[in-house]
Design goal:
Elements (H helix, E strand, L loop, with lengths): L1 E3 L8 H33 L3 H29 L1 H20 L4 H29 L4 H30 L4 H4 L1 H15 L3 E3 L8 H19 L9 H24 L13 H31 L4 H7 L1 H21 L1 H19 L8 H28 L7 H33 L5 H27 L13
Antiparallel strand pairs: 1-2
Helix pairs in contact: 1-2, 1-4, 1-5, 1-7, 2-3, 2-4, 2-8, 2-15, 3-4, 3-7, 4-5, 4-15, 5-11, 5-12, 5-14, 8-9, 8-15, 10-14, 10-15, 10-16, 12-13, 12-14, 13-14, 13-16, 14-15, 15-16
Length: 473
C-alpha cells in the first residue's frame, strides 16, 4: 500500500493536475515539435534525410524501452522523487539537444532525453490515478489526455513558430522554463507516495533487453530503404531483435526476481485489451504528425510557421474530443467510446489518404485531419481509465508505464514500417514530378493507418464495457 509523507500538505486539485499535465505536455510535445524543424536541422547539422528519422526514433525508442522501468521506479521510490529526477534529466538533455553541433550528438542526446521522458511520463499518470477518486478521476484523466494528445498538434504549431521566427534550437530550449516551473511546483506541493515494500529492486536487465531488441528491429526496418528485406544485414538485425525479445520474455518469466513486466498484471482483461488498442492507434496517430509535416513542407511548399499553423485546428479538435469523452465516460463507459473513436479515426485516415500533389488545405485536408485528431482525444481518456482503474494503487506506475509503452512502441514501429513503405512507394511509383511521387508514398501510409485503426476497432469489441475499480481506488 502507498505511504504518504506527512511533510507536504495536500494541495488543491488544480495544482496537482498542473504538475502532472505540465510534464506530460513536455514529453509528448518533444515527439512532434521536432518534425517541423527537421528540414532546418538537417541543413545545419549536415545529416541525411534517412538519418533525420533517427532524430525522432532515438527519442521514441529509449522512451518506449525504458517506460516500464520508469513506471516501476515511481511505485518503488515514490512518485515525487521520481518525477523530479525524470524532470531534471529531461530538462538537461533538452539543453544538450539545443547545443548539438552535429547529427551524432543530436541523436545521442535525444536518446538521453527519451530516458528522461520514460522516467517522467509514468509518474504523471501515477500522480493522477493516486490523487483523484470517484467522479474526479475521469475529469482529471480527461484533462491529462487532452494535454497529452494536444501536445502532438501543438508541437507542430510551436515548432513552426520557433523555427521560423527564432531558430530550431529553441524547440529544445523552450523546455527549460517549463521544466523549472514544473519542478518548483512539485517540490512545494506534491506529496510523496510509495510502496512500503523496500525489498523490490529494479529490473535493469529487462529494460536493456527490451530496448536493445526493439532498436535492432526498428533499425532493420528503417534500413530497408537502402537494403533489401532479404539482405544479410536486414535479416541479421531482425533476427538479433527477435532473439533479444525472446530472451526478454524468458528473463521476465523465469529469472527476474522482481520482473519489469510481471505477467500477473495481464490477468485484467481491461488492461490487456486496452493496451492492444493503444498499441494500434498509437502507431497510426504517431505517424500522422510525421507525414503531414513533410506533406505540408515538401509538397505544398509551406514554410515552418505556416506548417505549424496548419496543425492548430488539430490541437483544438483533440482538446474537444478529450473533454467530451471525460464528461460522458461515466454514462457511456469505456467500450462505446473506443468504438466511436476508432471508427472516426478509420474514416479520417481513409479520407486524408485521398490528398494529391495539388490538393487544397481547406478543401481536402482540414476536415479529415481534424476528424482524426478529434478521435485521438475521444480515445485516450477511456483507454487510460480502462488500463489503470482495475489495478492496485501500489502498481499504478506499472500500469501507466505499460500503457505508455504500448503507445510509444506502436508509434516507433509504425513510423519505421510506414516510413519505409512510403519511401519505397515514392521511389518505385513512376510519375512525372517528385511532388506526385512523394504524395503517392504519403497516401499509402495513410491507407495503412486506416487499416490499423480498423483493426483497433475490432479489438475494441473485446474491451469490457464496465471496468470494476480495485478496492484501493
Amino acid at each position: 500500500m502507498p505511504n504518504a509523507s506527512p511533510v507536504h500538505r495536500h494541495a488543491p486539485d488544480w495544482i496537482i493536475l498542473t504538475i502532472a499535465c505540465l510534464a506530460q505536455f513536455m514529453v509528448v510535445l518533444d515527439v512532434s515539435i521536432v518534425n517541423v524543424a527537421l528540414p532546418s536541422m538537417q541543413r545545419d547539422l549536415h545529416f541525411s534525410l534517412a538519418n533525420a528519422q533517427w532524430v525522432v526514433n532515438a527519442y521514441v525508442l529509449t522512451f518506449a524501452g525504458f517506460l516500464l522501468l520508469g513506471g516501476r521506479t515511481a511505485d518503488l521510490f515514490g512518485r515525487r522523487r521520481v518525477y523530479l529526477a525524470g524532470l531534471a534529466l529531461f530538462t538537461l538533455a533538452s539543453i544538450g539537444a539545443g547545443l548539438a553541433t552535429n547529427g551524432t550528438e543530436m541523436i545521442a542526446v535525444r536518446a538521453l532525453q527519451g530516458i528522461g521522458g520514460a522516467i517522467l511520463s509514468p509518474a504523471t499518470l501515477t500522480i493522477i490515478v493516486t490523487t483523484f477518486r470517484g467522479p474526479r478521476l475521469p475529469k482529471a484523466l480527461g484533462t491529462w489526455s487532452a494535454v497529452a494528445g494536444a501536445g502532438g498538434a501543438v508541437g507542430g504549431l510551436l515548432g513552426g513558430a520557433l523555427t521560423g521566427w527564432v531558430s530550431w534550437r529553441w524547440i529544445f530550449f523552450i523546455n527549460v522554463p517549463v521544466g523549472v516551473a514544473a519542478g518548483v511546483l512539485a517540490a512545494l506541493y506534491l506529496r510523496e507516495l510509495r510502496r512500503r515494500d523496500e525489498q523490490e529492486r529494479l529490473d535493469v536487465t529487462g529494460a536493456v533487453l527490451v530496448t536493445g531488441s526493439l532498436a535492432a528491429i526498428i533499425y532493420a526496418v528503417v534500413n530497408t530503404v537502402t537494403q533489401s528485406w532479404t539482405s544479410t544485414a536486414t535479416l541479421s538485425w531482425l533476427l538479433g531483435g527477435l532473439v533479444g525479445l525472446a530472451m526478454f520474455f524468458w528473463w521476465e518469466a523465469s529469472v527476474a526476481t522482481h520482473p519489469l513486466l510481471p505477467y500477473r498484471i495481464f490477468r485484467s482483461r481491461a488492461l490487456s485489451t486496452s493496451n492492444l488498442v493503444m498499441f494500434l492507434v498509437g502507431g497510426a496517430f504517431f505517424t500522422m504528425w510525421y507525414f503531414l509535416t513533410f506533406y505540408y513542407q515538401y509538397v505544398l511548399g509551406y514554410g515552418a510557421v505556416k506548417t505549424g499553423l496548419a496543425f492548430l485546428p488539430m490541437a483544438l479538435a483533440i482538446i474537444a474530443g478529450a473533454q467530451l469523452s471525460s464528461r460522458i465516460l461515466h454514462r457511456t463507459h469505456v467500450r462505446p467510446l473506443l468504438l466511436a473513436g476508432t471508427a472516426l479515426a478509420t474514416v479520417g485516415f481513409a479520407w486524408v489518404s485521398r490528398v494529391g500533389a495539388h490538393s487544397s488545405y481547406a478543401a481536402n485536408i482540414l476536415v479529415p485531419s481534424a476528424l482524426c485528431a478529434f478521435a485521438i482525444g475521444l480515445l485516450f481518456t477511456p483507454l487510460a481509465s480502462a488500463a489503470t482503474t482495475g489495478v492496485d494503487h501500489a502498481e499504478a506506475g506499472l500500469a501507466s508505464g505499460v500503457l505508455n509503452t504500448a503507445r510509444q512502441i506502436g508509434g516507433s514501429l509504425a513510423l519505421a514500417a510506414l516510413g519505409t513503405v512510403a519511401a519505397d512507394r515514392s521511389a518505385t511509383f513512376r510519375v512525372a514530378t517528385s511532388h506526385l511521387a512523394l504524395t503517392s508514398g504519403y497516401d499509402r501510409a495513410f491507407q495503412l493507418s486506416a487499416a490499423i485503426t480498423a483493426l483497433a476497432l475490432v479489438v475494441s469489441l473485446a474491451v469490457p464495457r464496465y471496468v470494476t475499480p480495485h478496492p484501493g481506488h
